[in-house]
Amino acid sequence: MDSFLLRNGVLFAEEVSLEEIALRYGTPCYVYSRATLEQHFRAFDEALRGQKHLVCYAMKANSNLGVLDVLCRMGAGFDVVSLGELERVLQVGAKADKIIFTGVGKREDEMRRALEVGIRCFNIESESELHKLNAIAQGMGKKAPVALRVNPDVNPQTHPYIATGLKDSKFGIPIARAMEVYRLAQKMDALEVVGIDCHIGSQLTELDAYREAAVHLKHMLQALAAEGIHLHMVNIGGGLGIRYKDEKPPSPCAHADMLHSVFGPQNDYEMIVEPGRAIVGNAGILLMRVECLKQADTLHFAVVDAGMNDLIRPALYEAWMDIVPVRKREDVAAKPWEVVGPICESTDFLGKERRLALKEGDLLAVRSAGAYAFSMSSNYNTRPRAAEIMVDKGCHFLVRERETLPQLWAGEHKLP
Ligand SMILES: *Cc1c(COP(=O)(O)O)cnc(C)c1O
Question: In what order do the strands lie in the sheet with 16-17?
Answer without folding.
Answer: 4-7, 10-13, 16-17
